[in-house]
Write a structure and sequence with these properties.
Blueprint lengths: L1 H41 L3 E15 L11 E5 L5 E7 L4 E6 L4 E7 L14 E5 L2 E5 L3 E5 L5 E6 L1 E2 L2 E2 L14 E3 L2 E5 L11 H4 L5 E5 L5 E3 L19 E5 L4 E5 L4 E5 L6 E4 L17 H10 L2 E8 L4 E7 L10 H7 L3 E6 L5 E7 L5 E8 L2 E5 L12 E13 L2
Antiparallel strand pairs: 1-26, 2-3, 3-4, 4-5, 6-7, 7-8, 8-9, 10-11, 12-13, 13-14, 14-15, 16-17, 17-18, 18-19, 20-21, 21-22, 22-23, 24-25, 25-26
Length: 403
């Protein structure tokens, strides 16, 4: 009997041991599966950033060409040749550089006198190499590659001159050509009575020029309510780009972007930088020197551009900073001191933001090619600054999973 009980006890012990081994193994597997599941969930959200790559486009320029321009755009020809159209203010010329060979292709002299006179210009859009729109405040001239005027469009609506913002790249708001119409955005006209929120919502934002009928009209789309009470010196500047379906607006004092597909109503999307607390300051002092200083020191949003190759948007931002006595304000008015770039997906959701080092890049000189976003690295304070070239570094759009 004792042996039988001892044997049964042994069998029960072995049985219980097997159960414990099974339970412990199951528990370990559950933990492992849970860990894997948790790891997978944490990887569901991707964070994107822009990192300087090794590729750089360096274009030699002649002694008569300035290495800084307020207006430059990339253009891809039907033959697949990438060009950079570059306004040279000091000679009133439009230079075309081939970005594949890094050489000058040709220049167009914009006449200031004579039968083909346009005058001083600021802002342009390349339809093709023989159809170029030139903006000169009160009219748009369409010219060919020889500078010959093919047509003109006066910016007059309802017997009033439309105050269109120059279509530059410094404040990125190019002329958009769609269905034989040119779209521009209109700045606020001077008024004896400062604008309040109601007045903003009554003020037309978009101007449309019909290239066939030569009629200029204001669209139903109006300014958003950027501020409420009367603001004598409010900042209404904005950047605008077109992605093929939507016009996307980035107002420099707004933590949101505004999107329209019909130029009648906006849809507002939150788009706040991680480098700002609260809202950007929405006015500047009347003194010009104080205004210049504050425009560099104050936090402010900037250009928005669409990258059709990667289906993302880039919104530039200027974090708050302090100027030193040795800082050159004239140079910083062109280059800024600090900047970051926010990255938005096709649904206008922020998916990343990259802060760039000071005194290295010129964030208002950029273009997008098939292989990436290029930004000028020829900052005046950059130790490698060279006044004899245009230099642009490619930014790699990288992704990683959020930890």
């Amino acid at each position: 009997m004792f042996l039988y009980l001892q044997h049964q006890t042994f069998k029960i012990g072995v049985y219980m041991k097997n159960i414990w081994i099974y339970l412990l193994s199951s528990y370990a597997i559950c933990i492992l599966l849970s860990s894997c599941s948790g790891s997978k969930n944490s990887k569901d959200k991707k964070i994107y950033s822009l990192q300087p790559g090794k590729e750089c486009i360096v274009i030699p320029i002649d002694d008569n060409t300035n290495c800084y321009s307020m207006s430059m755009f990339s253009y891809m020809s039907p033959e697949g040749i990438p060009y950079l159209s570059y306004e040279n203010e000091q000679t009133n010329e439009l230079n075309f550089y081939r970005l594949d060979s890094c050489k000058l292709s040709h220049k167009i002299k914009i006449a200031q006198e004579g039968p083909e006179a346009i005058g001083r210009f600021i802002g342009h859009t390349v339809i093709d190499l023989d159809n170029i729109l030139i903006f000169d405040q009160f009219k748009i001239s369409r010219i060919n590659r020889n500078g010959k005027i093919l047509d003109k469009y006066n910016l007059i609506t309802d017997t009033q001159i439309a105050l269109c913002h120059p279509p530059t790249s410094k404040v990125y708001a190019p002329m958009i050509v769609q269905d034989s119409c040119i779209y521009l955005y209109q700045t606020l006209m001077y008024s004896d009575k400062p604008y309040d929120g109601d007045a903003l919502e009554r003020y037309p934002l978009c101007i449309k020029v019909n290239m066939q009928t030569k009629q200029t009209e204001k669209s139903p789309l109006t300014y958003p309510r950027l501020w409420e009470t009367e603001n004598e010196n409010g900042i209404f500047t904005c950047s605008r780009d077109y992605d093929g379906t939507n016009f996307v607006y980035s107002f420099f004092i707004s933590n949101s972007i505004y999107v329209t597909h019909n130029n009648q109503t906006f849809k507002k999307y939150p788009c706040k930088s991680q480098y700002i607390n609260g809202l950007p300051k929405n006015n500047y002092p009347l003194d010009i020197q104080a205004t210049q200083k504050e425009s560099i020191e104050n936090a402010s949003y900037g250009n928005i551009i669409y990258d059709k190759y990667r289906k993302v948007y880039y919104r530039f931002f200027q974090p708050a900073c302090e100027l030193n006595k040795q800082d050159n304000i004239a140079d910083l008015m062109k280059t800024g001191k600090k900047f970051s770039i926010m990255i938005l997906d096709k649904d206008f959701q922020v998916i990343g933001e990259t802060l760039f080092p000071e005194n290295t890049y010129i964030p208002v000189m950029f273009f997008v090619l098939e292989d990436g976003l290029y930004i000028s690295d020829n900052n005046f304070q950059n130790p490698e600054f060279n006044e004899n070239v245009l230099s642009f570094r490619r930014m790699e759009l990288t992704e990683q999973y959020e930890n």
